Amino acid sequence: MDLFQQVSLSEQGTPTFSDSAPLAVRMRPRSIDEVVGQSHLLKPGSPLRRLLEPQGSAGAVNSIIFWGPPGTGKTTLAYLVATTSRRNFIEVSAVSAGVKEVRAVIKSAREELRTTGKQTVLFVDEVHRFSKSQQDALLPAVENSWVILVAATTENPSFSIVSPLLSRSLLLTLNPLNSKDVKQLLRRALSDERGLKDKVTVDEEVLTHLADLAGADARKALTLLEAASEGVLSAGRSALTTEDIARAADTAVVKYDRDDHYDVISAFIKSMRGSDVDATLHYLARMIEGGEDPRFIARRIMICASEDVGMADPAALQMAVSAAQAVQMVGMPEGRIILAQAAVAVAIAPKSNASYLGIEAAIKDVRAGKSDAVPASLRDSHYSGAEKMGVSGYKYAHDYPHHIVKQTYLPASLAGVHYYHPTDNGYEQLVSKRLRTIRAILSDSKGNQK
User: Fold this and answer.
1) C-alpha span between 117 and 169 (Å, rounded)
2) Mean pLDDT of 298-305
3) Residue 179 in this model has a pLDDT that exceeds 60
4) Residue 212 · residue 242 · CB < 8 Å
5) SS3 of 443, please?
6) pTM of the entire structure?
7) 190-217: per-residue pLDDT in tens?
8) CA 300, CA 437: separation in Å to the nearest integer?
9) Which of 400, 393, 389, 366 is nearest to 378 (CA)?
10) pLDDT tens sequence across 132-158
């Protein structure tokens, strides 16, 4: 069937690929020792480690779900589950397979188990693309141990996988690879017999550019290395340059090192604060293309929405928080759209830093020792004897007109102090008008203010 493939194994139990296979396929780790970046899943005694050991068993684990970004090793680990323990391996396309095809694969695996006693690893890549009925079709095979199901997804399993299958599975989260991990894989590909066999040389600076351009995606890094190397070798050269990588990627290599990280994020924040939406999008694009962590970008948008927009447009913070959550759920590259929407909203919003200045002023007074006793009427009175100790006199605001009542709220040494000074921008113009009314009710007289 063209909807799934069965991988052939060498006598040593490792998968065999032709020399014409893509570099990323040829360089798939052949053993646990070649896996990088996922040490938290491969600790001695862990369920995955036991399953990966020759003739290993994960006990009651009949289904594993790998969740992680692209190029972090989900497919590699699935291959290793099969190859290191000499199980059969069948890969199903979640994009094109239907319930009929899934059941046919399970039937074949069940027959193999009955006649030879050999178990099959059924690998379903992008399992989130399966419909509910397709995922339900996997349940009997999992429950009866007809196959070991290994599924991979880049989307949050809580939202993309049906509860019965999720509850029967061991969920393993793969971490994004860092630059060191990616460079280790690239060096191996440059020298290994399965790879480029030292036909191409790359200095450390170019290798770092290549790793940064690929981000946390090992497959992308190896694919880019292969394309750039083919161009170099066809030109009769062996040394790979940054320009070769850029041509292979059909894009400019974005310079984005440690110094750029601080400079660009600073420019991004100041552009949002300054309401220059075009500059905001420019610096956002530089961070995205430079491989900046989208969670970091989202955090800075949230801070700006509160510090620089504040009550001038309270909805800006809500949008920024929603964007941060959405980026977590959706991931990249689509997350760039969500980040752009939130950044644009903050940039074009009316601005006020009154809340920020207010808390800074209040903290300054507290640090200066202006922390007198809480007024007696505001203290906790939910205990016997509170009234005898002078804890009384609190006026319940909702019992008075406008739900506001004149009484002492600040400590005595701070009576009449105003920390919050709203602007006339956006919604804060209405806040300013209401606050004048509130303070007039709370103060003894119009002049009793500091």
Assistant:
1) 23
2) 95
3) yes
4) no
5) coil
6) 0.53
7) 999 999 999 999 999 889 888 888 877 8
8) 35
9) 393
10) 888 988 999 988 888 889 999 988 888
* Number of residues that this document lists for the chain: 450
* Pairing outcome for strands 63-67 and 147-153: parallel
* C-alpha atoms less than 13 angstroms from C-alpha of 262 in its C-beta half-sphere: 2
306 with 191, same domain: the answer is no
Q: Number of helices and strands (H, E) in the chain?
A: 19, 8
The range of the structural domain enclosing residue 296 comes to 258-348
d(CA 121, CA 92): 11
Residue 158: other Cβ atoms inside 10 A:
11
- Least confident among 168-172, 210-214, 233-237: 210-214
| Sign of the Cα pseudo-torsion (61, 62, 68, 72, in order) | positive
Joined tokens for residue 238: 């062996």
Domain assignment present for 370: no
Q: How confident is the model at residue 225 (pLDDT cuts 50, 70, 90)?
A: very high
Classify residue 4 by its DSSP letter: E
> Could you tell me if 300 and 384 lie in one domain?
no
DSSP 424: S
Q: C-alpha angle with apex 255: 254 to 259, nearest 5 degrees?
A: 140
Q: Can you tell me the distance from the alpha carbon of 174 to that of 177, in angstroms, rounded to the nearest whole number?
A: 9
Residues 426 and 286: their CA atoms lie apart, in Å, by 30
Cβ partners under 8 Å of residue 50, min gap 6: 56, 57, 58, 59
**Of 39-53, 109-123, 435-449, highest mean pLDDT:** 109-123
Q: What are phi and psi of 56, to 5 degrees?
A: -75, 170
Residue that has been written with the tokens 């450390």 in this structure: 204
**How far apart, in whole angstroms, are the C-alpha atoms of residue 122 and residue 115?**
18
Separation in Å, CA 434 to CA 357, 428, 429, 430: 19, 10, 9, 6
| CATH number for the domain that contains residue 223 | 1.10.8.60
Count how many Cα atoms sit within 13 Å of the Cα of residue 107 in the half-sphere of its side chain: 6
Query: The domain spanning residue 303 has which CATH number?
Result: 1.20.272.10
Selection from 37, 32, 102, 31 nearest residue 68 by Cα: 37
Nearest residue to 174 (alpha-carbon basis) of 257, 65, 277: 65
From residue 215, how far is each of 31, 206, 262 by CA, in Å? 24, 14, 18
Burial status of residue 360 (CB atoms within 10 A of its CB: 0-12, 13-18, 19 or more):
exposed
Residue 78 belongs to domain with CATH number: 3.40.50.300
CB 31 within 8 A of CB 80: yes
CA angle, 234 then 237 then 238, to 5° = 110
